[in-house]
Amino acid sequence: MEHLLQSLKIGINDKIYVKDPESSDLGKRIIKESIIMIEDMGFESFTFKKLGQKIGSNESSVYRYFENKHKLLLYLTSWYWGWLEYKLVIATNSLPTAMEKLSKAIEIVTKEIVEDSTFSHINEEILNKIVINEYSKSYLTKVVDIENKEGYFVIYKRLVNRISNFIKEVNPNYKYSLSLASTILEGSLHQHFLKDHFSSLTDCRNNGDPTQYFSNLVFSTLKS
Known about the structure:
The structure is a single chain. The protein is mostly helical. The chain has helices spanning 2-6, 25-41, 48-55, 59-63, 69-92, 98-110, 124-134, 144-149, 154-170, 177-197, 210-223. The protein has one domain (13-223): Tetracycline Repressor, domain 2 (Orthogonal Bundle). 63% of the residues lie in helices and 0% in strands. Helix 10 runs antiparallel to helix 11. The longest helix is centred in the middle third of the chain and has 24 residues, at 69-92. The mean pLDDT is 93.
């Protein structure tokens, strides 16, 4: 799987960026350093001016790639969901049963992420922390409906639909496959957040991890 991912280019909606950051060394440096800086200082404190200083370039050079930091966050989170989608598709493609496919899908989208060497300019482990802490800021805005119509969230929605289809394969009579699929994705982020910041509010620290929790939740629900 990792060999296939090495030649992978995540297809991001070109309306999110001004210039594709994957098209130049500077663009890749912008992505690499922004991930590190956002995780370190938080999205609110992060600015293009600080990013420009970090990469040794003018602030204006960052604006040649992204209109604002909201669009940059949309790019980073879209890339993350696209990366997970490819991993899910490859990992489930050869599995023989619907139960195995759904189990593997839950594992992929809920487990803790470790960095791999597939994309040298993107630290997936740090990006995962950004998604856990900052993803809701990409859509909890006044313009979410407009951006949704523009297709900014299509990768995330496609991932939800893939999981929903696995759920329907396991139990065709279950009426809430999309709701359950989106609960797995959003709930996993929330459980990881609780585990890191409000550990007294989750059982996922002492009685297993989010993967075990959501596997139990999903298959218990589908059995009933």
